[in-house]
């Protein structure tokens, strides 16, 4: 009737929840019978049959809805794999009983039939309305974040002590002056400490020492942000307290605007400029905080954040002019900071670095291959700042190195187009050929410029792959939390989308070291891996989880992952050293009624061909999102030693994974810079 009545809906839901397995399977047939074209499928409920063409149509529809693109030949293979498995009597058609028997070989099918269509209408349990204990008050959270929490406590106590001590020194001036001076001394501390947290070279060096076990060096970005917010609070309180103190003073001989915007009051150690510099500092600090907000940085306006953050130089200059004692706090860390900057400039200008190869990948990802100078040494998971003058002369942007340190001649960067600079980079290489071939009748000067462009883009290998010779500058490398991976016993690497880049470097480095342990029989192809622990690598097991939205995103590193799978030994004393888990979120999950047949077909064909139809890997790509509770439970049951979870990807998913890993007592590290 082209409509569903309330009675029909209730009957169907009742069948799915309380019906027998046979009733549920009959309902599944009716779901596939979308518009009445499935005559033989519908009649199969009464003893008919399904032929291969009908099954192919169902699978094709499911592939389209799952955003999976396969050749027609592969679709035929999927259809035949499922059809031949279900057609027990080789009659050329599948009866209802045969399909029922085939579905029952997959234990989760009957449960999924109930979950997928009925659970979304189920009212929430009363227990769910009870608010659970906040994560920050659990024992697990305090155990896993003990270093950070202890450091924050010491930081807070230090600020409180300085605040109270300076207040007491100015007790004679009244409460507003006491508040202003207390906030002022805290600003001296925080405006210096925020610089210490950005000493990247020093922090990279400290990560290789015992200090990393005491101080939360891996949380330096988070602490930098927290100190930034503290500076804003202290600045506002400091300014308002001075204004209130002036307003209540009976000895004032000037107006409020003169007090704030002129040198007439004569306040300050440099020609009475404390008031003016204070107002300017208030504006600059607030501007820097607003422009560094997440919605600015993540909305394609990274340049706004980048250029506004360079105001820190003027902030320090004005602070020295504004406060007579600030230079005493600033001198030591300031010298170290500027020495770091000078070293970075010197290192970035040493040696000729050139982009020698470019590969444009799906989802607007630019793969850069850079000639690696002999003196450039880095660790797996490190990142660099890169400057490409032909894209932007003065802009430096951070990207993770995606190649292994053992790769001597070149290093890789994978850059996803998410902002103005990254989009310009992608478009430059995409359009460079067409620009070089146009405008043949230009003036001599433009001909010379075109000639230079042709020298830069010198050999095109394919539509998206070319050799080139483009000058660039690199500052780094700088360390990240992933440096601790080789000190772990069981590492879980989780990458979401382009978040795989640090793990690409790490996995390659791991497999280089793994090959040193791998043994091969001289008389046959049999291989095994000796269980050896050394000081450089204590790893006993690595689980790599890669979550992508669509099928094309797997093309970024599928050749690398294929090579890693081939490098694995045939037999290992403690099981497979590296296990891969791929997830495709756009694909219909196994809990979706429509996808049951498709997932069964993909499983059957993967077993038959010993490789996944979506990625071509041996590892089967799972549809939907991971159930982190089940994933971490399985990891915990393997008992391979202390588990460390390393994640790189979206901040929203990081919160979910961190909460789940804390429940199992795993250490969690988020790639961040």
Automatic annotation (TrEMBL):
Which Gene Ontology cellular-component terms appear in the entry? NADPH oxidase complex
Any idea where the EF-hand domain is?
74-109
Q: Which SUPFAM superfamilies match?
A: EF-hand (SSF47473), Ferredoxin reductase-like, C-terminal NADP-linked domain (SSF52343), Riboflavin synthase domain-like (SSF63380)
Q: Where are the transmembrane segments?
A: 149-172, 178-200, 221-241, 269-292, 304-321, 491-514
Molecular function in Gene Ontology: calcium ion binding; superoxide-generating NAD(P)H oxidase activity
Q: Which domain of life is it from?
A: Eukaryota
Q: How does it sit in the membrane?
A: Multi-pass membrane protein
The record, for InterPro entries, names: EF-hand-dom_pair, EF_Hand_1_Ca_BS, EF_hand_dom, FAD-bd_8, FAD-bd_FR_type, Fe3_Rdtase_TM_dom, Fe_red_NAD-bd_6, FNR_nucleotide-bd
User: Keywords assigned by UniProt?
Assistant: Calcium, FAD, Flavoprotein, Membrane, Metal-binding, NADP, Oxidoreductase, Transmembrane, Transmembrane helix
Show where the FAD-binding FR-type domain sits.
Answer: 348-484
Name this polypeptide is given:
NADPH oxidase, EF-hand calcium binding domain 5
Source organism per UniProt = Astyanax mexicanus
Give the classification, highest ranks: Eukaryota, Metazoa, Chordata, Craniata, Vertebrata
């Amino acid at each position: 009737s082209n409509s569903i009545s309330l009675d029909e809906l209730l009957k169907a839901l009742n069948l799915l929840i309380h019906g027998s397995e046979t009733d549920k399977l009959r309902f599944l047939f009716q779901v596939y019978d979308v518009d009445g074209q499935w005559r033989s499928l519908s009649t199969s409920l009464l003893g008919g049959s399904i032929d291969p063409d009908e099954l192919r149509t169902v699978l094709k529809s499911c592939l389209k809805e799952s955003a999976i693109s396969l050749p027609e030949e592969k679709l035929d293979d999927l259809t035949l794999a499922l059809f031949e498995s279900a057609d027990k009597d080789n009659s050329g058609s599948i009866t209802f009983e045969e399909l029922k028997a085939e579905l029952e070989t997959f234990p989760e099918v009957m449960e999924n039939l109930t979950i997928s269509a009925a659970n979304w209408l189920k009212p929430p349990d009363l227990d769910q309305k009870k608010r659970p204990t906040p994560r920050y008050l659990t024992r697990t959270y305090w155990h896993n974040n003990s270093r950070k929490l202890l450091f924050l406590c010491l930081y807070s106590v230090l600020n409180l002590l300085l605040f109270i001590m300076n207040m007491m020194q100015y007790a004679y001036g009244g409460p507003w002056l006491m508040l202003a001076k207390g906030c002022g001394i805290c600003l001296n501390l925080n405006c210096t400490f925020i610089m210490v947290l950005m000493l990247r070279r020093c922090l990279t060096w400290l990560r290789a020492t015992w200090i990393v076990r005491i101080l939360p060096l891996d949380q330096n970005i988070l602490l930098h942000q927290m100190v930034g917010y503290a500076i804003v609070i202290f600045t506002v309180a400091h300014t308002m307290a001075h204004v209130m103190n002036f307003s209540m003073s009976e000895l004032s001989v000037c107006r409020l605007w003169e007090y704030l915007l002129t040198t007439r009051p004569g306040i300050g150690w440099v020609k009475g400029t404390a008031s003016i510099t204070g107002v300017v500092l208030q504006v600059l600090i607030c501007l820097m905080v607003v422009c560094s907000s997440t919605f600015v940085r993540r909305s394609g306006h990274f340049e706004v954040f980048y250029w506004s953050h360079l105001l820190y130089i003027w902030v320090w200059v004005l602070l020295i002019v504004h406060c007579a004692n600030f230079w005493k706090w600033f001198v030591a860390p300031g010298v170290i900071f500027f020495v770091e900057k000078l070293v970075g400039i010197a290192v970035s200008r040493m040696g000729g670095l050139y982009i020698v190869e470019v590969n444009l990948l799906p989802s607007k990802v630019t793969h850069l291959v850079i000639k690696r100078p002999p003196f450039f040494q880095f660790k797996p998971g490190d990142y660099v700042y890169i400057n490409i003058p032909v894209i932007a002369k003065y802009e430096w942007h951070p990207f993770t190195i995606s190649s292994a340190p053992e790769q001597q001649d070149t290093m890789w960067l994978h850059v996803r187009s998410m902002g103005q600079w990254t989009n310009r980079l992608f478009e430059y290489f995409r359009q460079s050929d067409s620009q070089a071939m146009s405008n043949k009748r230009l003036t001599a000067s433009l001909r010379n410029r075109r000639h230079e462009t042709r020298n830069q883009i010198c050999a095109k290998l394919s539509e998206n792959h070319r050799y080139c010779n483009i000058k660039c500058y690199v500052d780094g490398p700088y360390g990240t939390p992933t440096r601790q991976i080789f000190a772990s016993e069981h590492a879980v690497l989780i990458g979401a989308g382009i978040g795989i880049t640090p793990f690409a470097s790490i996995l390659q480095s791991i497999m280089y070291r793994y090959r040193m342990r791998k043994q091969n029989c001289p008389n046959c192809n049999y291989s095994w891996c000796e269980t050896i622990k050394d000081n450089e690598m204590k790893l006993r097991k690595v689980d790599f989880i890669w979550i992508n939205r669509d099928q094309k995103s797997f093309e970024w590193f599928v050749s690398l992952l294929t090579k890693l799978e081939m490098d694995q030994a045939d037999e290992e004393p403690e099981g497979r050293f590296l296990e891969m888990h791929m997830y495709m979120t756009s694909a219909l999950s196994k809990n979706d009624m429509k996808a049951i047949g498709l997932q069964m077909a993909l499983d059957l064909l993967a077993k038959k061909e010993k490789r996944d139809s979506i990625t071509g890997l041996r590892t089967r790509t799972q549809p939907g999102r991971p159930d982190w509770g089940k994933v971490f439970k399985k990891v915990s049951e393997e008992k391979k030693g202390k588990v460390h979870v390393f994640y790189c990807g979206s901040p929203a998913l990081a919160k979910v994974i961190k909460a789940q890993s804390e429940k199992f007592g795993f250490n969690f590290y988020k790639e961040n810079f």
